[in-house]
Amino acid sequence: VLASASPSSAVPSHILHEVFGYAAFRGQQADIVDHVTAGGDALVLMPTGGGKSLCYQVPAIARHRAGQGVALVVSPLIALMHDQVGALEEAGVHASFLNSSLTGEDAMRIEREMMSGRLVMLYAAPERIATPRFLAQLDSLYERGLLSLFAIDEAHCVSQWGHDFREDYLSLDVLHERYPNVPRIALTATADELTRADMIERLQLQDARVFISSFDRPNIRYAIVEKDNARTQLLRFIGDEHEGDAGIVYCQSRKKVDETADWLVSEGLNALPYHAGLDASVRKRNQDRFLREDGIVMVATVAFGMGIDKPDVRFVAHLDLPKNIEGYYQETGRGGRDGAPADAWMTYGLADVVNQRRMIDESPAGEEFKRGQRAKLDALLALAEAHDCRRVRLLDYFGEASSPCGNCDNCLSPPATWDATEASRKALSCIYRFHQNNGQRFGAGHLIDVLRGKVTDKVTQYRHEGLSTFGIGADLSETQWRAVLRQLIALGHVRTEGEWNTLELTASARDVLRGEVQLLLRVPSETKGRSKGSRGA
Ligand code: ADP
Ligand code: ZN
């Protein structure tokens, strides 16, 4: 029964029409499918929504129809496995998954289907692959020529440099070592150069053909604004530009999701919350409404979005800073999948920088891993502080050269900059003077008061009006000082420590103090210092 189908039914374009009902392959899909169907290895870098699934599904069907047996698809996302297998079965393709959600009986039944070679595709979680039992089954299939293809989805999980490292992916090199003749296709939406090199090495894809699709999403307009009053800014953004549109608002914590959703509702918007702390039934109901109804604003943590394929999301807003550029790109990428204009809008402030740095510092991870995370955060902060084209920077991060896009905030209204070198030196000197005073440390609020020469209780208590740096920064507003500090922390010249986020100089602060580093800052769009300090610019 295995190879009974007529030869034409195994032709990729035929499968695309007949099984999936699509008229044509998109972008590089055709090349990838041909290469893999013919038995070649491939590394596919394609942005979210680009159509990665067909790149292994069509070859799997083609090779099955040519009598080559079962394709193994490794995926870390159980929800995604579910959806894909459901869709394939509906299209008449015999597919299944093996993961921890199954009963023993179901698992046995699926294994039988696999061993008979009748199954076209088997989805499995990475932790299953390297188990002796599963390898013995693969051995048997291999010996009978019934192992047609390995597809490794979310392949960046194999890299410590990726944002989503999974230990279990490391054992996937066994596939190549044990079954050298089976073609492999590894796919990911997010890989900077370091991660890419790591994937090739760890998955032994040195001989694989690499397919890189452009990561550009030209219809998405990127904007990053300084945080002033984030809620009000959000409401104004939605009211001015997206009344009645579907959108996603990302927040970092569950609590903030709940509060923000409540608040938007009280302001008359059609908003729903989504995070892992909600009942599964509530999550499902909210997600279904978001997908089916028009104009719902989903307020969510990053738990929302994986595998959500809603084409007409008109905006993605971030009230908190994502962890890194991969996260930012993936989350904003959920807007405008239909190709019509969409906004990626983020508010960003000093507290975001401090929080993200602290989360890394306090995580139980090893030092090397933390260093990687810090480097990734720095790249995101540089994007947030940029005064040139956001898209150029974003694409550059993914290894793609481009020119100013004309469709980001910085291109559309180039921000004015001011030379903050002198101001930075003043701030650093003041932190240094605090240290000299019995090694005392203070947070940003107090530092700014001292710089601006404000006599507060705390100033009096510590006799800081006597410091040589007291009042040397009266020419700048509080907002400007916050921007200076944010940049100093973002650039790593100042660190924050402990529960009170006290400020501390790092080794590189010395270069700034010596005047060896020039700092150019954006002029804040809305200056709302609490006092009437003049704008030094
Ligand atoms: P990715 O995994 O890269 O994020 P998917 O494989 O989920 O992307 O595909 C995204 C969407 O595009 C899906 O709805 C899919 O059905 C659709 N799609 C993919 N390829 C094609 C094509 N050649 N023609 C039409 N629609 C396609
Ligand atoms: Zn631009």
In short:
The protein is of the alpha/beta class. The protein has helices at 12-20, 29-37, 52-65, 78-90, 104-116, 126-129, 132-143, 173-178, 193-202, 230-241, 254-266, 280-292, 325-332, 350-362, 367-385, 390-397, 409-412, 421-436, 444-451, 457-461, 478-490, 509-513; strands at 42-45, 70-74, 95-98, 121-124, 147-152, 184-188, 209-212, 220-226, 247-250, 271-274, 297-300, 315-318, 342-348, 417-419, 494-497, 502-505, 520-522.
Task: Please write out the topology.
Blueprint: H1 12-20, H2 29-37, E1 42-45, H3 52-65, E2 70-74, H4 78-90, E3 95-98, H5 104-116, E4 121-124, H6 126-129, H7 132-143, E5 147-152, H8 173-178, E6 184-188, H9 193-202, E7 209-212, E8 220-226, H10 230-241, E9 247-250, H11 254-266, E10 271-274, H12 280-292, E11 297-300, E12 315-318, H13 325-332, E13 342-348, H14 350-362, H15 367-385, H16 390-397, H17 409-412, E14 417-419, H18 421-436, H19 444-451, H20 457-461, H21 478-490, E15 494-497, E16 502-505, H22 509-513, E17 520-522
Helix pairs in contact: 2-3, 14-15, 14-21, 18-19
The structure holds adenosine-5'-diphosphate (ADP) and zinc ion.
Zinc ion (ZN) is lined by residues 389-391, 404-405, 408, 410-411.
Descriptive labels:
537 residues; alpha/beta; 7-stranded parallel beta sheet; 6-stranded parallel beta sheet; 22 helices; 17 strands; 14% strand; disordered C terminus; binds adenosine-5'-diphosphate; binds zinc ion
Describe the structure.
- The protein is an alpha/beta fold and 537 residues long.
- Helices cover 42% and strands 14% of the residues.
- It has 22 helices and 17 strands.
- The protein has helices spanning 12-20, 29-37, 52-65, 78-90, 104-116, 126-129, 132-143, 173-178, 193-202, 230-241, 254-266, 280-292, 325-332, 350-362, 367-385, 390-397, 409-412, 421-436, 444-451, 457-461, 478-490, 509-513, and strands at 42-45, 70-74, 95-98, 121-124, 147-152, 184-188, 209-212, 220-226, 247-250, 271-274, 297-300, 315-318, 342-348, 417-419, 494-497, 502-505, 520-522.
- The protein has a seven-stranded parallel sheet with strand order 3-4-2-5-6-1-7, sandwiched between helices. Strands 8-13-12-9-11-10 form a six-stranded parallel sheet, with helices on both faces. Strands 14-17 form a two-stranded antiparallel sheet.
- The longest helix has 19 residues, at 367-385.
- It is elongated.
- Residues 527-537 have low confidence and may be disordered.
- The protein binds adenosine-5'-diphosphate and zinc ion.
- Belongs to the helicase family. RecQ subfamily.
- It comes from Piscinibacter gummiphilus.
- One of its GO terms (molecular function) is 3'-5' DNA helicase activity.
- Its cofactor is Zn(2+); Mg(2+).
- InterPro entries: DEAD/DEAH_box_helicase_dom, DNA_helicase_ATP-dep_RecQ, DNA_helicase_ATP-dep_RecQ_bac, Helicase_ATP-bd, Helicase_C-like, HRDC-like_sf, HRDC_dom, HRDC_dom_sf.
